[in-house]
C-alpha cells in the first residue's frame, strides 16, 4: 500500500499559529480560506516536514512567535515525523519505535509530490522526459523520433527539389513540330547528293530520248525525200524502214521508261540544311524539357515514398507508446512534448493538467500515495468533484488549498488557525515532560 498522510500538527510555521489537520486518506482534502490567512503555509509545513531542508521555507518561523516552529506528521505506514526546537531538528520514528532520519522518508516520499508546481512549470520536453523515464522507453522512442526527423528532413528536401525541378521544366520552351533526335548535316547532304544523282540519270535518259526522237524525225524526213525516188531507192527504203522500225521500238521503250520517271525535290532537304541549327536547337530544348519532367516525376515519387516511410515510422512509434505501461490512459509524447488525449500541456484544462501531473508523480514513486496542490480556485465545483472522484479511484490522496470559505473546503484557515477548532493549542515550551500531542494541539 502506498503511504498517505494521516495527520498534521503545526505551530508557528510561516503564517500558521496552530493548525491540526486530518486529511481524507483518499480523494481531495481542501484547505480553504481568504488570502493571507495561512493556507499555503499548511502545504509548506507538510513539504518541509517530509522533504527535508531542501523544502525549508526562507522565513520558516512565524513573525512575532515566541516559541520556535514545531511540526508533527503521522503517516499511514506508522512512521511519525517531527521537527521541533530552535533548529527544527528532525526526528523520524518508525513503527518499532526506532529513530531514523531523512533517508527513511526519501524511500517513500516523492519530492515532486511535495512540489507539484515544479513539474507543472517544467518545459514540455522535461515533462516528456519524466514520462519516458517512468515507462522505460525513452531511448527507443528517441531513436524512433530521430529516424522520423531524418526522414522528414529528407522528404522536405526532396519535396523542395521536386518543386524546383517541376517549375524549371514548366519554364522550358518545347517545339512539338521538331524531330525527336538532332539532325545530321552530313546525312542531309548525302541524301541531297543521292537525289541529284538520280535526277542526273533521269536527265541523261531524257536526253537519250530526245536524241532518239531527233534521229527518228531525221529518218522520217529522209523517207519523205526518198519517196520520190522510191523506185530507185527501194532497197534503201527497206533498210531505212527496218532501221525506223528498230528505232521506233527503242523509242517506245524509252518513252515508257521516261513516262515512269518522277523527279524528287531537294527543296525540303535544302531547307532542312539551311535550318539545321534552328531544328537542332528545338530538339535540344525538347530533350532538356523531357529530362526535367522525368527528374521532377522521380523526385515526386521519392517524396511519396518518404511520406509512406514517415507514416510507418509514426505508426511504429504510436504502437510503442500504446504498448507501454502509461501512468494515465491518453498520455503520449509527440515531437518531444508531453500530450494528453492529443493535447499539449498549454492546451489542457487546469484539471487535466493536475490529473496528468498527479498521475506521473504517483508513478515516479508508487510508494508515495499523496500530492500537495496549491491554488485550486481555477476549478469550478463540478471539476473539483470530478477530480476528487478520480483521486479516490486511483487511491491517491491530495491536500490542496483554495481561496474560498465554501462548503467544498473541509478545513478553513483564518488568521493562521483552523476556524471553529474545538481545542485551543497551548504554547509549546522547551520542557519535554510538558509536551503531549493531542488532536489539534501540541
Automatic annotation (TrEMBL):
Entry-linked InterPro entries: P-loop_NTPase, Rad50/SbcC_AAA
Coiled coil segments of this chain: 195-309
The keyword Coiled coil belongs to this UniProt entry's keyword annotation: yes
Origin superkingdom: Bacteria
Gene3D superfamilies associated with the record: P-loop containing nucleotide triphosphate hydrolases
Domain Rad50/SbcC-type AAA: residue ranges: 9-279
Keyword terms, alphabetized: Coiled coil
Name the record gives this protein: AAA family ATPase
Amino acid at each position: 500500500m502506498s503511504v498517505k498522510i494521516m495527520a498534521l500538527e503545526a505551530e508557528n510555521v510561516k503564517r500558521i499559529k496552530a493548525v491540526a489537520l486530518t486529511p481524507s486518506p483518499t480523494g481531495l482534502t481542501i484547505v480553504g480560506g481568504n488570502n493571507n490567512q495561512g493556507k499555503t503555509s499548511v502545504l509548506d509545513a507538510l513539504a518541509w516536514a517530509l522533504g527535508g531542508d531542501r523544502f525549508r521555507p526562507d522565513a520558516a518561523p512565524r513573525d512575532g512567535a515566541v516559541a520556535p516552529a514545531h511540526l508533527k506528521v503521522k503517516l499511514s505506514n506508522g512512521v511519525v515525523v517531527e521537527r521541533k526546537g530552535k533548529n527544527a531538528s528532525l526526528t523520524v520514528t518508525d513503527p518499532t519505535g526506532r529513530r531514523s532520519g531523512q533517508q527513511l522518508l526519501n524511500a517513500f516520499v516523492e519530492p515532486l509530490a511535495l512540489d507539484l508546481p515544479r513539474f507543472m512549470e517544467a518545459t514540455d520536453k522535461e515533462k516528456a522526459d519524466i514520462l519516458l523515464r517512468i515507462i522505460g522507453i525513452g531511448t527507443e522512442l528517441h531513436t524512433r523520433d530521430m529516424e522520423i526527423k531524418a526522414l522528414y528532413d529528407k522528404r522536405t528536401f526532396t519535396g523542395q527539389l521536386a518543386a524546383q525541378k517541376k517549375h524549371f521544366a514548366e519554364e522550358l520552351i518545347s517545339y512539338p513540330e521538331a524531330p525527336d533526335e538532332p539532325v545530321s548535316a552530313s546525312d542531309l547532304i548525302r541524301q541531297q547528293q543521292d537525289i541529284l544523282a538520280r535526277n542526273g540519270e533521269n536527265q541523261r535518259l531524257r536526253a537519250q530520248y530526245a536524241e532518239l526522237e531527233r534521229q527518228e524525225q531525221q529518218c522520217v524526213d529522209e523517207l519523205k525525200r526518198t519517196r520520190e525516188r522510191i523506185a530507185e531507192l527501194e532497197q534503201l527504203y527497206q533498210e531505212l524502214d527496218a532501221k525506223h522500225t528498230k528505232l521506233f521500238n527503242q523509242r517506245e521503250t524509252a518513252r515508257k521508261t521516261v513516262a515512269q520517271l518522277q523527279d524528287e525535290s531537294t527543296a525540303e532537304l535544302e531547307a532542312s540544311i539551311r535550318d539545321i541549327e534552328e531544328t537542332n536547337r528545338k530538339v535540344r530544348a525538347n530533350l532538356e524539357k523531357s529530362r526535367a519532367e522525368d527528374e521532377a516525376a522521380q523526385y515526386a515519387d521519392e517524396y511519396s515514398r518518404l511520406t509512406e516511410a514517415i507514416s510507418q515510422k509514426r505508426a511504429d512509434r504510436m504502437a510503442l507508446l500504446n504498448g507501454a505501461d502509461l501512468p494515465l490512459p491518453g498520455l503520449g509524447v509527440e515531437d518531444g512534448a508531453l500530450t494528453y488525449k492529443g493535447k499539449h500541456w498549454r492546451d489542457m484544462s487546469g484539471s487535466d493538467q493536475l490529473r496528468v501531473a498527479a498521475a506521473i508523480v504517483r508513478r515516479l514513486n508508487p510508494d508515495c500515495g499523496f500530492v500537495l496542490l496549491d491554488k485550486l480556485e481555477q476549478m469550478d465545483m463540478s471539476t473539483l468533484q470530478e477530480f476528487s472522484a478520480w483521486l479516490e479511484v486511483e487511491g491517491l490522496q491530495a491536500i490542496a488549498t483554495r481561496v474560498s470559505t465554501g462548503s467544498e473546503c473541509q478545513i478553513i484557515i483564518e488568521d493562521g488557525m483552523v476556524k471553529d477548532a474545538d481545542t485551543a493549542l497551548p504554547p509549546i515550551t522547551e520542557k519535554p515532560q510538558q509536551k503531549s500531542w493531542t488532536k489539534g494541539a501540541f
